[in-house]
Amino acid sequence: MSNARQADVFPVTMTDWIHERMSLGPEGRRQLNQEIMARYAWPLQVYFMGTRDRWLGEPTDIVQGFFASRLAKAEFFANWSASGLRLRHWLINAFCFYLKELHRARRKEAREVAPSDEPATAEGNPSKAADRAFAVSVVREALRMARVQCEKEKLGAHWEIFLRHFYKGEAYADFAADFEVDPPRAAVMARTARTKFNAALRDLLSREAPDADPDAEILSLLEESGS
Amino acid sequence: MSQADGFQQSFPDDSFADLNERSALRLLRLGLSRPSRPVDALIDRLLSPGGHEWFRKVIQGPTFKTCVGDAFTGLISGRVMLVQLTSLKEAAKSLGADRDRENRLVARVAYDLAIAAALAHHGRIITGQKRSELLPVLTDLADALPEPWADMVVRATDALDRAE
């Protein structure tokens, strides 16, 4: 798919994406925050579970508290953009600071009750686990976006065939008859839906950093996942 | 109601909550853009109308007969020696230099199937291509081939991790 065609379907860059949402005022900011939370909540929970800070609370509560604390700040996205970091790495950095804040608060509470040693902030390399979780999270979102696109374009059968083959791992020959097509035709239909999925995936990954190259992002995630 | 409308009723859970890490990484790999590879011309031919009939004729042709005898018996059932597969691959390389496009496509069939069969039946890599390049080539080719050839190529991709 050419960039021009892709641009018709999904926004192309991270900057477009943020500016588009920010230009909508408080409602746009709310949408932006929701998108961030939908994509990054799980990777951050996985990161949290890989640290020694698990005692601080339930992963979902901790991550929700983090988002509530940080996404409300007006300068959050500007600071990220200036950092040059991938968004997930920026969020993990910010999350580490948030955990330290929680530490201090809990330590203060504990001093009022009984003395306690301060646990270390992190152990091992939870960032890798978070990267793997991010890969799953971003693929899920790309699937959702591609499904919506296929629905809009009346490509329901194409999408279903794509899922049967690429998601469920079924051979075309095993199910093509369900769609009243032969296996080669099924493969062609799957390719159409695959194009939508690819465009969605690359769009999401292009939002990971100001100058993100989707190919480099994919290769980085595959490498970090040991694939 | 059209067929497409009907299938829209059968979309799975839109959260894709059952997506595991391995499947996600496989899907992630689909997003890589890439320049047109030599194998893409073959994939396009296989996916065009009559592509599978064309393929079945190709594997009964002289390139296969000379090197491995009956292609089905040799490449699918695995009753073939590694040296035969290497000779099939070398014959394909010679034919691949032909000026005729059809012959180059036939050569590509022989080349990729020889490599896949060596992996699937002998667990050996008989090409200098990097594993990271070979995997997407074989995966995409498997998607375009008819059964049981697709299955053989899928088994080759499974064998790639532990192949010598």
Summarize the structure in short.
The complex is a heterodimer of chains A (227) and B (164). With 227 residues, chain A is mainly alpha-helical. Chain A is 73% helix and 0% strand.
Termini separation of chain A (Å)? 26 Å
Q: Give the integer mean of the pLDDT values of chain B.
A: 85
The Cα radius of gyration of chain A reads: 21 Å
- Tell me what portion of residues of chain A adopts beta-strand conformation: under 5%
- Tell how many strands the DSSP assignment of chain B holds: 0
Largest sheet, strands/sense/barrel of chain B: none
Q: What's the gyration radius of chain B in Å?
A: 18 Å
Query: Mean of the pLDDT scores of chain A?
Result: 81
Uncertain segments of chain A are 1-12, 115-121
Question: Biggest chain pair contact, residues each?
Answer: A-B, 48 and 39 residues
What can be said about the biggest beta sheet of chain A?
none
| Number of self-contained structural domains of chain A | 1
Structural class by sheet pairing and helices of chain B = mainly alpha
Oligomeric status? heterodimer
Q: SSE order of chain A, as H and E? A: HHHHHHHHHHH
Shape of chain A: elongated
SSE pattern of chain B, N- to C-terminal = HHHHHHHHHH
* Fraction in helix of chain A: over 70%
Q: Unreliable stretches of chain B, pLDDT < 50, 5 or more residues? A: 1-11
Number of helices of chain A: 11
Describe the 3D structure:
The complex is a heterodimer of chains A (227) and B (164). Chain A has 227 residues and is mainly alpha-helical. Chain A has one domain (3-224). Chain A has 11 helices and no strands. The longest helix of chain A is centred in the middle third of the chain and has 27 residues, at 87-113. With 164 residues, chain B is mainly α. Chain B has a domain at 69-164. Chain B contains 10 helices and no strands. Chain B has helices spanning 3-8, 21-30, 38-47, 51-58, 62-68, 71-76, 82-95, 101-122, 131-144, 149-160. The interface between A and B is large, with 48 and 39 residues.
